[in-house]
Amino acid sequence: MRKLMVVFPCVAFVVALSLHTTLFAQEAKTPAATHDSLQLTGNGASVSISPADFRVLPHITRTVHNTHTDATETYSGVELATLLAKINAPLGKDLHGATMTSYLVATGSDGYAVVLSLAEVDPAFHQGQVIVADTRDGQPLGKNGPFQLIVSDDKRPARWVHNLVSITLKRAE
Predict the structure, then answer these.
(1) If you write DSSP's letter for every residue of 27-79 in order, what string do you get?
(2) Global pTM value
(3) Beta strands at 38-42 and 71-79: parallel, antiparallel or unpaired
(4) Per residue in 141-154, pLDDT tens?
């Protein structure tokens, strides 16, 4: 019985250490694969956009005041509505009725996430612009990139997600 009492904790420790090592190795591989692309998910679709694919999409430029830096900054990027068309998000005339409960969760590589209603990003519905930027003041985003969500009409840039890695379309129930 004493042997069992000594062996069991040792076996449990070895199993726990093995699981921890395996999970740590998997986590170490995951971030590198997801940080260099933008994942769009929703409506049963999933699209991954690399920086090279992103550069060929139609870009717009938007100048905004960043209250965090107290500076006027010019961002260039793609309207979020254009990207959402790749996952068949209900926009324009399709945004009505039950689809009005649709929302987006935009997440950065550090886990920071924000929510936007789908109506906020639809140019046919809302005057402000929401863009996914890949340059600021004519330069790559550097430590804030390769992608950054910019919500032009926000008075504070709290919903500007730097190092943007995913945008997920969901519906409130």
Answers:
(1) HHHHHHHHTTSEEEEETTEEEEE-HHHHHTSPPEEEEEEETTTTEEEEEEEEE
(2) 0.78
(3) unpaired
(4) 999 999 999 999 89
